[in-house]
Amino acid sequence: MGLPTLAMDNKKSPDISSGASDRRMGKNQIQRRTPFASVNTSEQKPVDFLRILFEGCIAGGAAGVVVETSLYPIDTIKTRLQAARGGGQIILKGLYSGLAGNIAGVLPASAIFVGVYEPAKQKLLKVFPENLSAFAHLTAGALGGAASSLVRVPTEVIKQRMQTGQFTSAPNAVRTIVAKEGFRGLYAGYGSFLLRDLPFDAIQFCLYEQLRIGYKLAAKRELNDPENAIIGAFAGAITGAVTTPLDVIKTRLMVQGSANQYKGILDCVQTIVREEGPTALLKGIGPRVLWIGIGGSIFFGVLERTKILLAKRRPTIQNSESTKHD
């Protein structure tokens, strides 16, 4: 068996390991293979599923931490722009406020997302026809976003309240929020978060995967790190721009605290439009597109590189195990 690569066959043959097997398959069957951006595996077994889950968690966690550490100041500026009501002044101090606590949440959240996304994607690619692979990517992205939201929402609430100067430390933020608002306060804006992040995750990963598939078919080779990064940046920037209004609503609901300025998503939209005009729903679009564009470049670049490094470890492990059995 050759080295695993970042491609997966949508339609698997039971055992394709020699030239003779390829000839028996016939030319048409070989041409039907479609490359996808995931780790190549043989016939799926429970151990393979667990390995994909594990490697997805490692790659996702690494990519999430690198992005968050690199681009946190841009995210802080974006949050302050969106939280400011009317002509509120934007403070450019303490741009790394809340970073440590945020990384503590981003690491498991990113790990959960990719850990769910990768195996879900591979399973769904076998269910959907090849010409509907985009639906597999959309669904897997939404599933990953829903699973990781249980960690991402409290992390986002604490981060944004620290970014807007309400708290000076993550532990203090948690204690105060729970004391004043109850445990539910850590999930403030949960509905708006899902409204923003489920379509965001689904669209961004679908765009990224489909662009990679098209590029690989055109280039007739595996993509290198700069190419993965450029595709990731493009997918992130487009998705970030489209979902900015949802992000503004999510930010307002999360930072309002116990004041309860907004009664819900619809009331938040109506209040913003009535008091500040429709353009207020696009607040922070510049920093958001910049942040997610650069973030997409770093995230997907680190993600694919980490997956390659993890995949290269497989033959060594498998060969050593085979030697022991022999």
From TrEMBL:
This is S-adenosylmethionine transporter. It is found in: Membrane; Plastid, Chloroplast membrane. Signal peptide: none annotated. The chain crosses the membrane at residues 52-74, 95-114, 134-153. The keyword Membrane applies. The lineage of its organism: Eukaryota, Viridiplantae, Streptophyta, Embryophyta, Tracheophyta. The keyword Chloroplast applies. It is a multi-pass membrane protein. PROSITE patterns: SOLCAR (PS50920). Its main location: membrane. One of its GO terms (cellular component) is chloroplast membrane. Residues 28-39 have a biased composition (Polar residues). It comes from Aquilegia coerulea. GO terms for biological process: transmembrane transport. PANTHER family: S-ADENOSYLMETHIONINE MITOCHONDRIAL CARRIER PROTEIN (PTHR45667). Belongs to the mitochondrial carrier (TC 2.A.29) family. InterPro entries: MCP, MCP_dom_sf, MCP_transmembrane. Keywords: Chloroplast, Membrane, Plastid, Repeat, S-adenosyl-L-methionine, Transit peptide, Transmembrane, Transmembrane helix, Transport. Solcar repeats lie at residues 50-123, 132-214, 227-309. Residues 1-39 are annotated as: Disordered.
